[in-house]
Amino acid sequence: MTSPFRVLFVDDEEELVSAVTERLELRGIDAAGCLSGRAALAKLAAEHFDFVVLDVKMPGLGGLDVIRMINENYPDVKVTLLTGHSSVEDAEAGLRLGAVAYPQIPVDLDALLEILRNAAGQA
To answer: Is CATH 3.30.365.10 the classification given to domain 6-119?
Structure first.
């Protein structure tokens, strides 16, 4: 079965990245993971992804900085921002920057898949 889209999952917690990418793969989604904003930008430069699921609070380049760079350099890539430390200001800023959704960590995989499918027009 061919994956309907490719997802890059970005978070600074290695166990979370590993678990989510593995669970996406088990559901037929082509997924890769990165542990930093800089690594995500390098991965986007090397490979095509339809979606980036991005943690807002990471050391170094945070999610809001990364989404700005994605918008500039990869305008066709859709971004979903994640946070374990939600703030209204971050959510509003992320949505203004074009994030398709702003779910909380821990990630509900079924809800994340629904967000991705809706954004891809496959709902």
So the answer is: no
